């Protein structure tokens, strides 16, 4: 009678730690969920092999952009925690355009936001998501309100400084050449 070999730890568990020596493995390991136990996509991210199989499926299902977006979203949320930006601090604001105590000033995070928007959300983007018009307009309106705030600030600066100096110079008959 032939015996079936027992599965190795690497086959049976997702190693959340690292191998310390040939015989000692960190205790922080979790059992891989069976397919019957998987109730959401986040659980698939715990298993790199299953994630790759799911990616292959989404390609065949013509929905790979959803998975790609979600991976970038997870990376973005992780970056926020690395740079100590509290993603939940926006919840108590009256408006999305209202300034936040935790302003995002890191250029890498700002670039991630712009990349996600231009790759997945903007109309006609390369991997445009199948969003409701309400969701797409919400994001677009958020960006527009940010620019409205910036434009208002710049208009105040130009009205208070540049315009006054320009009018004074014009009244004196002084001309400036920009070349």
From TrEMBL:
Q: Where is the RGS domain?
A: 40-167
Instruction: Give the PROSITE patterns listed for this entry.
Output: RGS
Q: Name one Pfam family in it.
A: RGS
| Protein name (Swiss-Prot/TrEMBL) | RGS domain-containing protein
Q: Which organism is it from?
A: Rozella allomycis (strain CSF55)
């Amino acid at each position: 009678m032939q015996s079936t070999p027992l599965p190795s730890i690497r086959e049976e568990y997702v190693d959340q730690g690292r191998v310390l020596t040939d015989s000692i493995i960190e205790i922080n390991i979790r059992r891989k969920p069976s397919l019957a136990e998987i109730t959401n996509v986040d659980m698939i991210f715990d298993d790199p092999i299953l994630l790759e199989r799911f990616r292959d499926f989404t390609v065949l299902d013509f929905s790979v952009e959803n998975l790609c977006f979600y991976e970038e979203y997870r990376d973005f949320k992780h970056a926020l925690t690395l740079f100590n930006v509290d993603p939940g601090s926006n919840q108590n604001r009256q408006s999305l355009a209202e300034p936040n105590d935790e302003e995002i000033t890191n250029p890498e995070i700002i670039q991630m936001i712009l990349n996600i928007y231009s790759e997945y959300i903007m109309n006609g983007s390369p991997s445009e998501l199948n969003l409701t018009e309400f969701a797409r307009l919400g994001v677009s309106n958020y960006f527009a309100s940010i620019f409205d705030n910036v434009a208002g600030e710049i208009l105040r600066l130009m009205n208070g400084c540049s315009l006054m100096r320009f009018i004074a110079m014009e009244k004196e008959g002084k001309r400036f050449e920009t070349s």
